[in-house]
Amino acid sequence: MENFFTRYTDSSAVFPSFPIVQHNCLGSWDVFLSLFHSFTMLPHPPLLVAIQDPPSRRSVLPTFPGFMSFAPPPPGLPRVAIYVSRTLNQHMSCSTVFHESSEMLSVDVFSSQRLFGSPHRSLRVTSVYLLRTNRPPYRSILPERIFSFLSYPHLVLGDFNLHYPLADPSRSLSEREFTISTRYFDAALDVPYHLLNTPGVYTHFPFDTISRPSVLDLAFTNTALSSLVSSWDTPLPSTGSDHVLCVITLRPPAIMLPPPTPHWALLDLDAVGKALDTFTTLPCPAKPTPNSLSRWFDISSTRLTSLLTSHAPSKRPCPRSKPWWSPRLSSLRREYHRFARLSRLDPSPLNWSNVKSSRRTYFKAIASAKKAH
């Protein structure tokens, strides 16, 4: 069952940072309000908020200005909810994905362009609230339903109610705790999913003074999303819950600028010809050995390359340069836009026909140039 709402744009251009917040509200309206008011202390407001144990009245979630709420359908109280920022709604298309369990909910985010420059155009965020049960696997959702293979980026986060050495290395676990948690972490590793939590950073602080802090709120990413994760952090003070607020930030990977290269098209051929007239190499060894011959060749090749590059200006293509672009494409682009301007001034059938013809030729030439490249 899906619910769609629209609009598309380039994610990295509009959202240079993509914060996602996860929190357990303990079913408290006060904690809910404290959570959303605390977003003013974040550098960037969250675009998605995944809540476990949200407050509700007659299965209706509370509202907050600037967000749209989604929860699993009745019957029963909603155990998870995802709030989508209206800013995200204005620029991208999202759909809610309901699962068989009321403790699990997903939201798919779609972009018409590549998501943060990656090959993918969609992102799935899944909120999970594992409840304890008396039957194996002693939690309310099977691990295979949580960690399923997806070819596009997937973020799984929530209150797992699990203790595991990978998340909390200093905790002493009972055999039962280790057996239960191992099944879930092994299922995540098999897909594979990677744990985002910083080991040993507590997310749960019990109200009583006897129990020790623990790591119950976990976040996992599949391989397609790992390179887009900038940070996982617990930056804000308590909201009144015994769980802290977790922030996962997605951001485009750092762009490495290409090194400068000689611009051979602007090579000064006259100057190079004069330089080559006087160019000499070192004499070849009289009794060459493999090592001496290789050294002589390397030195001569380096001297010749240096002579050529010294007469060619350097260029550094920008990260978004199009190596397949050509002067012909520039000419076709100018022609297409010229006819488009004329058609706007005089929308006659002839001008409109010229626009369609030039546009068809222009985009076919782009496709051919990309394919040839």
Distance between the termini: 42 Å
Q: What is the CATH superfamily classification of the largest domain?
A: Endonuclease/exonuclease/phosphatase
Helix content: 25-40%
In total, how many beta strands?
15
CATH class (first level) name of the largest domain: Alpha Beta
User: What is the CATH-assigned architecture of the largest domain?
Assistant: 4-Layer Sandwich
Order of the strands making up the biggest sheet: 1-6-7-8-9-11-10
Shape category? extended
Order of helices and strands: EHEHEEEHEEEHEHEEHEEEHHEHH
The radius of gyration over CA amounts to 30 Å
Work out the strand percent.
15-25%
Number of helices: 10
Low-confidence stretches: 1-10
Give the CATH topology of the largest domain.
Answer: Deoxyribonuclease I, Chain A
- For the record, the count of structural domains works out to 2
Structural class: alpha+beta
The major pleated sheet works out as: 7 strands, mixed
> Mean pLDDT, rounded to whole units?
86
Can you offer a commentary on this structure?
- This protein has 373 residues and is an alpha+beta fold.
- Helices cover 31% and strands 20% of the residues.
- The strands form 3 sheets. Strands 1-6-7-8-9-11-10 form a 7-stranded mixed beta sheet.
- The relative contact order is 0.10.
- Mean pLDDT is 86; it is low at 1-10.
Which descriptors would you attach to this protein?
single chain, 373 residues, alpha+beta, Deoxyribonuclease I, Chain A, 2 domains, 7-stranded mixed sheet, 6-stranded mixed sheet, 10 helices, 15 strands, 31% helix, extended, disordered N terminus
